[in-house]
Amino acid sequence: MTAEIRTSDGELLSVKLKKVERRRRTTAFLLAAPLLFFIVFAYVIPIFQMLGRSIDNAEMNSFLTETHEVMQTWDGSEMPGEDVTSTFYYELKTAVENKYHGKIATRLNYEKGGFTSLIKKTSRKLKNFDENANFLDQFIDVHKKWGDIEYWQALKRGTDAYHFRKYLTTFDYEQKFDGSIERIPEKLRINVTLWLRTIFVAVGVTFCCFILAYPISHLLSILPTRYSNLLMICVLLPFWTSLLVRTSSWMVLLQKQGVLNDTLVSLGFVADESRLELMYNMTGTFIAMTQILLPFMVLPLYSVMKTISPSLMRAATSMGATPFHAFRKIYFPLTYAGISAGSILVFVLAIGYYITPALVGGAKGILISNRIAYHMQQSLDWSLATAMATVLLIAVLVVYWLYNKIVGIDNMRLG
Amino acid sequence: MNSKKSDFVKFEQVDKSYDGKELVVKGLDLDIAEGEFLTLLGPSGSGKTTTLMMLAGFETPTNGEIYFDGRPINNIPPHKRGIGMVFQNYALFPHLSVYENLAFPLKVRKVDKSEIEERINKTLKMVSLTGFENRMPAQLSGGQQQRVAVARALVFDPKLVLMDEPLGALDKNLRESMQYELKHIHESLGVTVVYVTHDQGEALTMSNRIAVFNDGKVQQLSGPNELYETPVNSFVASFIGENNTFTGTVKEIASGSAKIETDSGETIVANPIAVSSSGEKSRISLRPERVSIDPNEHLENKFTSEIREIIYHGDHTRVRVNLLGNDDFILKVPNASSDLKLNVGDKLDLGWSSHDCRALDY
C-alpha cells in the first residue's frame, strides 16, 4: 500500500510536514547560531591550528626548499655530494641576507644539539666562501661539526614538511638518524613518568572525590530543604571562589610553617623538627585537587540521589533486607548514573589540571599539563607542546567514547 | 485451623510525636484480629499513616508498645518484622525486572531457586500478570505496577500486609476494579491486611472493620455499615458519606428520643446518641437518603422546604433546599421517579423518622 496521504489543502503530507518542520529547525538553529559561531571561531579552529603545529614543519621546509629536494636523492650513508652542499650554501646565503637564519638554527637545534652555534658561526663566515671551490671542505673548515654526517642527516630530516617525531618524544622515544626507533637515555626520560603520574593523580582524585562526595550527597538528598540548601551552599561556596584564591589558600594551610602543621605540632601529634611535607609534592596536589574538584562529583550524585524515592529503601527493608543489603542491591545501583557522570567530569578535569599542581605540586607533584606549559612558555618547543596536548585530547575523547559505550551519554546528569 | 487471634496486632497506649510539641498519635489502643482487613481511614494529618509506619517499623512510638503476634516489636528493626508492605507510589525497584522485584524478598530469605520460580509464578498468576516477568517497571501501566507491588508484598507469605494508600495514583475505574481484586486476594489468602486510605468509598468497599482517625485518635472502630448507619460522633457522621446537619439545644430527653430546638427555633425529634441531658448543645445528623419527599406515612418530623438548586447526577438528582434555616440541606432523588416535577423556588414537604436523625456532640 503506497496510498498518498494529502493534507486538506491538497499538498502531500510528507512534503507539508517537512516544510513545517524546516521552519522550526531554522528557528532552533538561529537561536544556537551566535554561540555556535563563537565556539567555532574562538575555540575549535584555534585548537585545530595549534594541534597542526605538532606535525607541521612547512615554514622550515619553505626556507630550505631546494636543499630539501636535492637531499631526497642522498641516501645518508656517506657524506653528501656537492649538489647538496652547494644548494645549501646558496639557500643559507639567502637566509642570512633576509635575516631568518636564526629561525633555521633554532629549529635545527631540536633535531640535533649544537646546530645553533653551528649555523650562527657558518652564517658569519659565509661571505668568505669561494663559490668555485669544494663547498663541503669549506663548511668543514668553518666548523668541524660539518664533518660529522649526523648534522647533514639532521638537516635532511629537519626540512621535511611534515613529521611525527614529536609524538615519539611525547612518550620518551626517539628516531635515530638510521630510522630506528629507540627509547631515549634513561636519565632524560620524563614524559612517561609524567603521563603515568597524571593518570594516577586523575584516577586517585576521582576516587577520593567519590569517597568524600557520596555520603555528603546522600545527606543533601535526604535532608529537609532548609538544611540541604545551607549545606549545598557550603559545598558550592568554593565553586564560586576563584581557583587561584583557593589554591593559594591551600598553600597557606599546607606549607611547613602553615596552619595545618602548626595545629598538629601544638596538639603534639607531630614534633616541631619533623613537620609534615604536605606541599611541593604529590600529597599537596592530591589534597588541593580533591577539594577543588569535589563539587563536580557532588552535583551529579546529588541530582541522581534526589530522584531516588526513600520508599525504595523502606520497601527493601520491609521485605527483609538488612539496611546494608538494601543499600548494595537497591540504592547503590540506582546511583550509577550519578557516579559515572561525576567520575568522568572529575577525571577529565583532573587529567588536564594545571594551576593547582603548578602552585602546590613542586617538582614531584607536577603533571603533564605543567610540562605542556613549560614547552609553550620556556623551551618554546611548540611542536612538542601541541603533540602532548593532542595526546591528552585524544585520551579524553577515548574516555568519553568509552563512557558513551558503557553508560550512554544520555544517562549523564549534571545537576 | 487453629483459632484466630483477636489481638494479632495490638497497639497499647501508643503516642507519637515528631517535634516534641504536638502529638500526631494520641494514646492509641487498637487490636487487629488475625485474617482481618482493617482500614485506617481519616483526613490527611490525622495520624493514620504514622500509625502504619510505626507498625512497619519505620517510625518508633514515642510512648507505648506495639505487639505483633504476641511479641513486643518496638525494638525490632523493620527487616526483621516480616511484614509485607505496599507503598503509595508502589516503590518498585526501577532497575530490576518484574521477576527480580518479586525475587528480592525471597533471595533475601535464601529460598532456593526452583522454589523462588514456583512462588513467583503462583503470585503473578494471582494478580493476573503471568507473562510480564521480564518487563521493567517503567514498561508497565499504573495498574500493572500496582499489581506487581501487591504481588511483591505477598510473595514471601507474610502474616501481615500493610498498604499505604496503594490505589491513590490510579484513575477512578481502575481504582474500583483494583478494590474488588484486593478484596478477593485478601479473602482467598486469609492474610491480615492493614490498609490506609483517605477515600471512604474504598474503605467501605473493602474492609471488615474501619478505624476512623482524626486528630491523632480513633474516633470510631466498627464495620462499614455500622459506621455509615450509626456514627458515634459528628466527625464520623460528616466524614463518612453525605450528611445534613442542624445545630440546636436539647429541650427534653427520654429513652430513645430527644426534642431539640434548632437555632432557627423549630423542634426536631431526634435519636439521642451523644447527648444525655437537656440544655446540652447538639449537632443533629441526617443522611440525605433517609428523608422522604411528600411524606404520607406518620413521621415525627415533617417540615416544608424551598428548592434552591437542582443538580442532575445521572442515576439520581440532588436537590439543594432551604430547610429550617439550613440553606445546604441536600436531598437525593432517584431518577426513576421522573414523574416528580421539580423547579427552583417550589415548596417541598419533607419528613423523616426520629430514629434516623442522630443527635451527636456539638
Short description:
The complex is a heterodimer of chains A (415) and B (362). Chain A has 415 residues and is an all-alpha fold.
List the helices and strands and how they pair.
The complex is a heterodimer of chains A (415) and B (362).
Chain A: H1 13-52, H2 58-63, H3 65-71, H4 82-97, H5 101-111, H6 115-125, H7 135-142, H8 149-158, H9 165-170, E1 173-175, E2 181-183, H10 191-222, H11 225-236, H12 243-254, H13 259-267, H14 282-306, H15 310-318, H16 323-334, H17 336-351, H18 355-360, H19 368-377, H20 382-406
Chain B: E1 9-16, E2 25-32, E3 37-41, H1 48-56, E4 63-68, E5 71-72, E6 83-86, H2 98-108, H3 113-126, H4 142-154, E7 160-164, H5 172-189, E8 192-197, H6 200-206, E9 209-214, E10 217-222, H7 224-229, H8 234-239, E11 244-254, E12 257-262, E13 267-272, E14 281-286, E15 292-293, E16 301-312, E17 316-323, E18 326-334, E19 347-352, E20 358-360
Parallel strand pairs in B: 3-8, 3-9, 6-7, 7-8, 13-20
Antiparallel strand pairs in B: 1-2, 1-4, 4-5, 9-10, 11-12, 11-14, 12-13, 14-20, 15-19, 16-17, 16-19, 17-18
